[in-house]
TrEMBL record:
GO terms for biological process: phosphorus metabolic process. It comes from the Bacteria. This is DUF3427 domain-containing protein. InterPro entries: ATP-dep_Helicase, DUF3427, Helicase/UvrB_N, Helicase_ATP-bd, Helicase_C-like, P-loop_NTPase, PLD-like_dom, PLipase_D/transphosphatidylase. Residues 401-550 form the Helicase C-terminal domain. Residues 187-342 form the Helicase ATP-binding domain. It holds the Pfam family DUF3427. GO terms for molecular function: ATP binding; ATP hydrolysis activity; DNA binding. Residues 69-100 form the PLD phosphodiesterase domain.
Length: 898
């Protein structure tokens, strides 16, 4: 007989429970059993009585997800756990309803633990992840607040007049929102930047993020004064409500817009029009507001915002926008030290239902761009315009492609990106001549024309707007369902911004159709950037994905290239995919193309490359070598490839403390002033070398480091790498809790050698062999676990394929080595670590390899024993002292999207 029943269903009906209640009562009255139920309020399909009756059963727990807009749970699964190892699961289409249990046409499959171990194991892991996720709230039938919340959520569409929001429980940020909050913290604490811009698509919840940011600020600044500025009343009304919910204070804030006049201005939500008409700057001091938020900050370069931005000196200025650029070319980044604090990735937003899915089709273009003029990193606009407007053959190809790929041209609401005003007008004229109503818009178009065009497109009076200016606010239309790329796009940022115009979620829009016209490219053009932008991170090369199909796309998205277009892209990838000659050419013409000095940082940012992509794991490339090959410098000096390979261990380093010391050391401050600095110096040595100095032929640590840095050009390049990392830290490091010297910062990344040197295991005089994933430092009474989250059969034997994963942000499931049983001494040490005064520390990495590089670990800090089960291996659940970084959590827990 089962000891635990776990039910995971979208909704529960009383018509089903009435049929099962007798058996469930019999089951739950036993003392040694447990019934756990996870459900949702999706579409208000769950019935209140069903939940109430189930919750009254003994040994029964129910958890409910109330947020169904972005996290729709459609799973229907039933697990009956048995100690015998013969657990059974039913997985399929049946919710708990009468039709599902009786006459409904349902598809379900029964699986057993004995025959389908992996499937049942995956069910258990997924269920535990949901169960421990804060999004799923405990339902207590004795708690009036819980009961009212459930009742109101299930009845809210029927009783819209009921003010149910005042019954909300504590609101928490989603993981992706917390990730943005973490980045804001890094900007302020690591870099001292207190003017911050958040760029994220509509639907991400930028206002909620701002509210949590203010809440966090208010914890250390009591009664912090807030000014929230927007340009529309609707935005302000929605925003004050969001702040009230996050702060759990429904009296918070005052509105100043339209007919609303505030009684108090300490926490004010005001329109920019009201701000200017009331002459706020005349009767408030420059430092009156501690925290100023400007919504839709892309408007802020306008004259109407200048008094606001130039007068006040808040402790925090937070800008919110979907796009940091304006059609009139005015710069808004100048208000934020030229930096964007946080940007949400495309795939992540689509997977969370914040943006709609897309279908991308690469259409073969008849234009041959190979000999087109290339200046300052792009094709010559005049040459493109001349070809595009020479005759109508290309227009015919474009229109015929639209008719083929869209389901119904009468339903199209399209946007075509053109190279110039003449090109846009030419396209609109051709489409109009062929009875597809269209219009051309540019920065020169009057505002009333832009507004009329928007309305006409939404109403279906016109089918396409052809635009030149990327950020034309007049064409920011959620209902756009077709995008045409009618010119080559040279920047991934620009490509994503253009693509994003059609990714807004809108009722009746299932997906965005994207047509990209692909011709044979100039050898300097790089197709990889746009496909990387759509695909995101993948262990497969882009070339391999093009050949075999795109397996790493956001869920529900699709990419297809016509035969010739595919050949053009593959040929381009062969030429540009870190091709030596292309890289040399990029370096040779860098200053001419960009107007900037050739530095490692400038080059990486221009070509949107990481350190891993720029350098090769073989050590065959460096900036110094590229400059020599490009004949920018006359220098016969060089070093062996192994010297550049030794630099690979620098690329991941993101501890400000460690980077600052290494930079000082390399610049000449070589005498350690403390045991901590000795350890950090040793970490630098073991970044370069595997064996201790004498074993490697060096007289001491400094000599070993100098063997790498003795040439000035190598020293300079290493400094550029470290300084680049110092400017691109994404996390706020937390101080470790050790009672002994150990220069590791929580949430920073380190490789194995660096970890061993930090703990004093690798020193100037020894570097003992270390191959296992666990290590006990007896003198420090500390166990460390080095954990690989994803294990492949190629890299791990069956006996080392341990089940290691995050249950939530603080709970971590970890398995011991396969030979370990409960009676083994180290297992006893793990279980009783607190009683014995021992420490457990966790280090995790997603994969063993990052491409051809060995991946570093993220230090999660210390953890406490919670429970264990099983034998050989023993499974543990640990509770972290510090929550896992939001950026890492989805990688550590792949069972759910949070």
């Amino acid at each position: 007989m089962a000891l635990t029943i776990d039910l995971l269903v979208s909704f529960i009906k009383w018509s089903a429970i009435i049929q099962l209640i007798t058996e469930l009562k019999e089951f739950t009255k036993r003392e040694d059993v447990r019934l756990r139920i996870i459900t949702t309020t999706y579409m208000q399909a769950t019935e209140y009585k069903a939940i109430q009756e189930l919750a009254k059963l003994p040994n029964t727990e129910i958890r409910i997800n109330y947020e169904t807009k972005h996290a729709r749970m459609h799973a229907k699964s039933y697990l009956f756990k048995r100690k015998t190892g013969f657990s059974t699961a039913y997985i399929g289409s049946s919710n708990l309803s009468n039709p599902a249990l009786t006459g409904g046409l349902e598809w379900n499959v029964k699986v057993t633990e004995k025959e389908s171990f992996d499937i049942v194991k995956k069910f258990k892991v997924s269920f535990e992840s949901y169960w421990n996720n804060e999004s799923f709230e405990i339902f207590d039938p004795e708690d009036e607040r819980c009961c009212k919340k459930l009742w109101n959520e299930l009845k809210k569409d029927k009783y819209n007049g009921l003010n149910h929001r005042k019954l909300q429980t504590t609101i928490r940020p989603y993981v992706y929102q917390q990730e943005i909050l973490d980045r804001l913290s890094a900007e302020r604490k690591v870099y001292g930047h207190y003017h911050n811009l958040i760029q994220a698509a509509t639907g991400v919840g930028k206002t909620i993020i701002a509210a949590f940011d203010y809440k966090r600020f208010r914890e250390t600044h009591n009664r912090a004064r807030l000014l929230f500025v927007a340009h529309r009343k609707e935005i302000l009304k929605q925003s004050i409500q969001k702040f009230q919910e996050v702060l759990n204070d429904f009296n918070f804030g005052e509105l100043y817009v339209g007919g609303y006049k505030p009684g108090d201005i300490e926490h004010l939500f005001i329109s920019i029009q009201s701000f200017n008409s009331a002459d706020f700057t005349e009767w408030t001091s420059r430092d009156y507001y501690d925290f100023i938020i400007v919504d839709e900050f892309h408007h802020a370069a306008a004259k109407s915002y200048q008094d606001l931005l130039n007068y006040y000196k808040p402790k925090i200025l937070l800008g919110l926008t979907a796009t940091p650029e304006r059609m009139d070319g005015k710069d808004i980044l100048k208000y934020f030290d030229g930096r964007i604090a946080s940007t949400m990735f495309l795939g992540e937003a689509i997977n969370r239902n914040l943006l709609c899915k897309f279908q991308y089709f690469g259409v073969t273009d008849e234009v041959d761009y190979r000999n087109f003029k290339w200046t300052r990193g792009r094709y010559d606009i005049n040459e493109l315009e001349k070809v595009y407007t020479a005759d109508t053959r290309r227009c015919a190809l474009i229109l015929n492609s639209v008719k083929y790929y869209v389901s119904d041209i009468n339903e199209v609401k399209g946007l075509g990106f053109c190279v110039s005003v003449a090109h846009a007008e030419y396209m609109a004229k051709y489409f109009n001549q062929h009875k597809v109503p269209s219009i051309a818009l540019s920065a020169k178009s009057a505002e009333d024309i832009r507004n009329d065009a928007r309305q006409d497109l939404e109403k279906g009076k016109i089918k396409f707007i052809f635009v030149v200016d990327l950020y034309n606010e007049g064409v920011d239309i959620p209902s756009i369902n077709t995008i045409l790329f009618l010119r080559p796009t040279e920047s991934a940022t620009v490509f994503l911004q253009q693509l994003g115009r059609g990714l807004r979620i809108c009722p009746g829009k299932d997906y965005l159709t994207v047509l990209d016209f692909i011709g044979q490219a100039n050898k300097k053009y790089n197709f990889a950037m746009k496909f990387k932008a759509m695909v995101g991170k993948s262990r497969k090369s882009l070339k391999k994905q093009l050949e075999d199909g795109f397996s790493s796309l956001p869920r529900g998205c699709y990419i297809e290239l016509q035969k010739c277009a595919k050949e053009y892209v593959l040929e381009n990838l062969k030429q540009t995919n870190n091709n030596k000659n292309i890289m040399i050419e990029h370096v040779r013409t860098f200053k001419e193309d960009t107007g900037e000095e050739l530095t490692l940082e400038n080059f990486l940012e221009k070509y949107e490359m990481s350190l891993y992509e720029f350098y090769q794991s073989t050590g065959s490339r460096s900036l110094h070598r590229l400059k020599k090959w490009a004949k920018l410098i006359q220098d016969d000096r060089d070093v062996e490839n192994k010297i550049y390979r030794m630099m690979n261990g620098l690329f991941h380093v993101d501890s400000a403390r460690l980077l600052d010391y290494w930079i000082r050391y390399i610049k000449g401050d070589k005498i350690p002033k403390s045991e901590e600095e000795i350890r950090m110096r040793n970490m630098l040595y073991y970044t370069f070398h595997k064996k201790y100095p004498a074993k490697s032929g060096f007289k001491d640590i400094d000599d070993g480091i100098e063997s790498v840095l003795h040439e000035n050009f190598v020293r300079d390049e290493v400094l550029q790498i470290l300084e680049y990392n110092r400017k691109h830290i994404r996390v706020v490091a937390e101080k470790n809790e050790y009672s002994f010297v150990c220069p590791l910062d929580i949430h920073c990344r380190y490789n194995t050698n660096q970890i061993m040197a930090a703990f004093g295991y690798f020193t100037e005089n020894e570097s003992p062999e270390f191959r296992e994933g666990v290590k006990y430092f007896k003198d420090k009474k500390t166990d460390i676990f080095l954990i690989n989250l994803n294990k492949s059969e190629k890299e791990f034997s069956p006996s080392t394929m341990y089940e290691d994963y995050a249950i939530n942000s603080t709970l971590f499931h970890w398995q011991s080595q396969s030979q370990d049983g409960e009676k083994r001494e180290r297992i006893k040490r793990y279980i009783h670590h607190k009683r014995r005064g021992n420490t457990i520390s966790l280090f995790v990495r997603e994969f063993k390899k990052n491409g051809s590089y060995t991946a570093p670990y993220t230090f999660l800090g210390n953890a406490d024993y919670m429970k264990h089960s099983g034998e050989r291996p023993v499974s543990f659940v640990w509770k972290l002292h510090q929550p896992m970084p939001a950026e890492l959590l989805p990688k550590a827990n792949k069972s759910i999207v949070m």
